[in-house]
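Minutes, project check-in
Item: structure for the 306-residue chain
Input as provided by the requester:
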Amino acid sequence: MRVLIIGGSGFLGKELVRQAIAAGWETAATYCSRPGSMPGASWYQLDLRTPGQVDEVLAAVAPSAVINATSGGSDWTVTADGSIRVAVAATKRGCRLVHVSSDAVFSGSRIHYDEACLPDPLTPYGAAKAAAETAVRLLAPAAAVARTSLIIGHGGSVHERMVHALVAGTRDGVLFTDDIRCPVHVEDLASALRELVMSDQAGMFHLAGADALSRYELGVLIARRDGLDATRLPAGRRADTPMPGALDVRLDSSATQGRVRTQLRGARAFLRARWDGGGGTEHPDTARRPVSGCYRVGPTSSAQHL
């Protein structure tokens, strides 16, 4: 198996690269601005906004499968247009395509969403993701499109770094008690995506964890796992802020769970064990900046949903 992982330098991408190499796959991965350093993979610079670059990379790699795990946030030229370029190029070369989408495509109006639910996004990011997954399904009908939720890992995710920063007092803000999602562990997500690569299953899949938690509840679990004082985590309601986006979006992954062997654990299960690199130490990448699920308060308040 020769696989190309688009967005290999990102949080999910790095785990996909690690698992692909461990499985003995011939692995190539792309980065935009930060070169990957994981040995065992071939790395290619790729800017999805530049016409023709995707074709050049695919010609150089000649993969049998492509996983598009990149995200440009609300940048339409990356998240929507870039994904369309990947789908066109992969289809033209006969590659198996697995495209990663997001629960941000939903408004939260119905709370529970299975694979048959149609997108109704509220944010520019959600709209770009919805456009991308719709285009992929039309341009590459044999592709697998996988929606996921908040991705958690061994301390490296934006959500885990945020909890450390809030406890340490290096960021202002609150964790929302009314913003509910179904977090998934990055290892489970990457494993399930690799299963889809190896299969011929097409259509929509939901790869989210079994537990629905608020951002605050998630933060408490992370803090306890890492030996932090969870009482230092500030709580608030997203509904009381001008921050746009859905409040309660719960991906129902039961149908997909019946089609993949990887167990999509709930956050209460995978956050039970203490993080091996923890000990109450703040993550070195932590910086004072707006992050997902945290609303900064003050005269220049700003927030960002990732």
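Outcome recorded: The mean pLDDT is 90.
No further action items on this chain.
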